[in-house]
């Protein structure tokens, strides 16, 4: 995945390893802007991404923006980065525990969301990787503090 990360006034371009992406997420060097949608991928989507990465298949780039000189915002690629973090942690968010209530979901929708056609089985869940990063900056500290997820095939499997 190619990207540019800005630190202060410096740009960092190039391919990042999975370990580098995970470190950037866990140390909060890249964050999600508040306007980013909730996580919508299914467990199978996470597994397919990890398989694609393992097989060297094309994965679209991640786009990062820096507007205040200090904060690196994920503009595109939140679903992919969240999936990478989920695989690293080895837990998939439990949809029942993170399910939006209808009123909450409607309040997060924008003009691109077709609420009439939404199927409850594929509804977004009220989860972003901020959920994991609030609990720690490494895998063990996160695992020690969470219990709202179910095991999923991880990066190291």
Verbal overview:
Strand 4 and strand 5 (72-76) form a beta hairpin. By secondary structure, the protein is α+β, with helices and mostly antiparallel strands. It has one domain (2-151). The longest helix has 12 residues, at 43-54. The protein has six helices and seven strands, in the order ββαβαββαβαααβ. InterPro entries: GmrSD_N (IPR004919), ParB/Sulfiredoxin_sf (IPR036086). Residues 26-128 form the GmrSD restriction endonucleases N-terminal domain. Pfam families: GmrSD_N (PF03235).
Précis, in short:
With 157 residues, the chain is α+β, with helices and mostly antiparallel strands.
Q: Which helices and strands occur, and which strands form pairs?
A:
Blueprint: E1 2-7, E2 10-15, H1 18-26, E3 30-31, H2 43-54, E4 63-66, E5 72-76, H3 78-89, E6 91-93, H4 102-108, H5 130-133, H6 139-145, E7 149-151
Helix pairs in contact: 1-3, 2-3
Pfam family, one: GmrSD_N
Domain GmrSD restriction endonucleases N-terminal: 26-128
């Amino acid at each position: 995945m190619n990207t540019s990360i800005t630190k202060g006034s410096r740009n960092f371009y190039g391919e990042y390893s999975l370990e580098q992406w995970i470190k950037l997420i866990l140390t909060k060097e890249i964050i999600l802007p508040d306007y980013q949608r909730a996580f919508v991928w299914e467990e199978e989507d996470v597994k397919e991404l990890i398989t694609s990465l393992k097989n060297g298949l094309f994965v679209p780039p991640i786009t990062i923006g820096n507007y205040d000189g200090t904060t690196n915002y994920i503009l595109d690629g939140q679903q992919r980065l969240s999936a990478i973090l989920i695989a690293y942690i080895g837990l998939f968010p439990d949809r029942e525990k993170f399910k939006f209530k209808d009123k909450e979901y409607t309040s997060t929708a924008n003009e691109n969301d077709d609420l009439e056609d939404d199927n409850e089985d594929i509804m977004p869940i009220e989860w972003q990787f901020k959920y994991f990063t609030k609990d720690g900056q490494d895998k063990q500290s996160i695992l020690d503090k969470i219990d709202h997820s179910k095991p999923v095939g991880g990066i190291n499997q």
